[in-house]
Design brief:
The chain has 16 helices and 12 strands. 40% of the residues are buried. Strands 1, 2, 3, 4, 5, 6, 9, 10, 11 and 12 form a 10-stranded mixed sheet that branches. Strands 7-8 form a two-stranded antiparallel ribbon. It folds into 2 domains: 316 residues, Transposase Inhibitor Protein From Tn5, Chain A, domain 1 (Alpha-Beta Complex); 30 residues. It has 418 residues and is an alpha+beta fold. Helix 14 crosses helix 15.
Length: 418
């Protein structure tokens, strides 16, 4: 199955050297290395120095966007389209310094506060069979897009302008749908639910959505324009239904749900305010929903539940395949690293889907998970080069490289300091 995946994108490399090195990179991303970067993966794969791996990410001739298209086809083919939902969300990678592309002090949910970070928007394809990333876009703050010299230093294309996170999501969703991805729904959090342009684009395409919104968002109802929490307060108790938003590790995720018609004067389709209430704390969450045709409450709840799949993808992508462990600074290198990490993650998701069996519970164990498949793969397949001479060569190279870097820093300091 691994070789079948590699064969899919092998034709994107015209030379055999980068093709083989891309395979080595994938094996390194699927390994159990505690830190995954060009240095550690090169040593794991048997290279004496990381120069070849760095060349693959920075200067080698290949198109990361075409590999992304191969990834999308690989995921949709193996996971099918039963209950398919496109889920969009952003994540942040904490970074030091100011030279890494897209980095600035900004809020990131990864840290839960404002930090020096790089933020990207990801698109996940989720079906009944499983879920995996199919696209990503790096968010460039205005401090970057208004500084042409800074963008040029990072290799950002000159025609790249500022785009909000919902705008990046709209582009990725449109690209997937235009490529023939069969998905009837889109899900996302409040950042995307608050953007009218994203909702309008989906409605024009006839694609349903369940997008979270804040409690203070105002919606048009038969009783007038009200805040979302004001609509919830007017609902009688008998309209609430206990429904599951999906199966979790500790049982079904049961909440109380209700929905109300909104935007009745808008043409084409049906629109609702979906409300989720925690059964213990009473905490409320709100979603703007649209469908070209009437659908039952249970369907909206199922789509809302799919949104958590992107959080699981972030967890496994970062924890198992090094999605956030890159040490690259430039635009091209970032796109190449992330697409390869997404391929490694997709491989785990596809194998888990293929090996998932309803008979597992009958024999007293759960189906194979991405974590367990990763463990088996690293134990049985992705074995590091353990030759002593190779390890000594790598150690010698690291020490020499670090010595040269240290001397360069001291020389620069002596030049600029009195």
């Amino acid at each position: 199955m691994f070789e079948e995946m590699v064969t899919r994108f092998a034709g994107r490399f015209t030379r055999v050297e980068p093709r083989q090195r891309a395979r080595t990179l994938l094996l390194g991303l699927l390994s159990n290395l505690p830190n995954k970067n060009c240095w550690t993966i090169s040593e794991h794969g048997g290279d004496a120095t990381p120069d070849g791996m760095q060349h693959l990410l920075r200067k080698a001739v290949w198109d990361a966007d075409k590999v992304r298209d191969d990834l999308r086809d690989y995921v949709t083919e193996h996971l099918g389209n039963t209950g398919a939902v496109l889920v969009v969300d952003e994540t942040g990678d904490l970074k030091k310094g100011v030279h890494t592309v897209g980095v600035q002090r900004q809020y990131t949910g990864t840290a839960g506060r404002i930090e020096n970070a790089q933020v990207a928007v990801y698109l996940t394809y989720a079906t009944d069979a499983g879920h995996a990333f199919i696209d990503r876009a790096l968010y460039l703050p205005k401090s970057w897009t208004t500084d042409a010299d800074r963008c040029a230093d990072a290799g950002i294309p000159a025609d790249t302008g500022f785009a909000t996170k919902p705008a990046l999501a709209t582009t990725m969703i449109g690209r997937a749908l235009d490529a023939g991805v069969q998905a009837g729904w889109v899900a996302g959090d409040e950042v995307y639910g608050a953007d009218p342009s994203l909702r309008e684009d989906l409605e024009k395409r006839g694609v349903g959505y369940v997008l979270a919104i804040g409690c203070d968002r105002r919606v048009s109802t038969p009783a007038g324009t009200l805040r979302a929490d004001g609509v919830a307060a007017r609902l009688p108790q008998h309209v609430w239904q206990r429904l599951s938003a999906g199966a979790g590790a500790k049982g079904y995720r049961y909440y109380d749900w209700a929905f109300a018609d909104i935007d009745l004067e808008a043409p084409n389709g049906c629109r609702w305010l979906l409300i989720r209430r925690h059964r213990t704390t009473g905490e409320l969450a709100f979603y703007r929903c649209y469908s070209p045709e009437p659908v039952p409450l249970r369907m909206l709840v199922q789509v809302a539940g799919r949104r958590w799949t992107v959080e699981e993808s972030f967890q496994t992508g970062k924890g198992l395949t090094g999605l956030d462990q890159h040490q690259v600074r430039r635009w091209t290198s970032w796109h190449r690293w992330t697409v390869m990490a997404m391929l490694a993650h997709a491989f785990l998701a596809v194998v888990a889907s293929a090996e998932r069996s309803p008979e597992s519970a009958a024999v007293g164990w759960i189906s194979l998970t991405c974590n367990e498949i990763h463990h088996l793969f690293t134990t049985l397949i992705s074995r590091p080069v353990l030759d002593v001479a190779h390890r000594i060569r790598c150690s010698t190279w690291r020490r020499r490289h670090q010595y040269r870097a240290q001397q360069g820093h001291y020389q620069r300091q002596s030049t600029h300091e009195p």
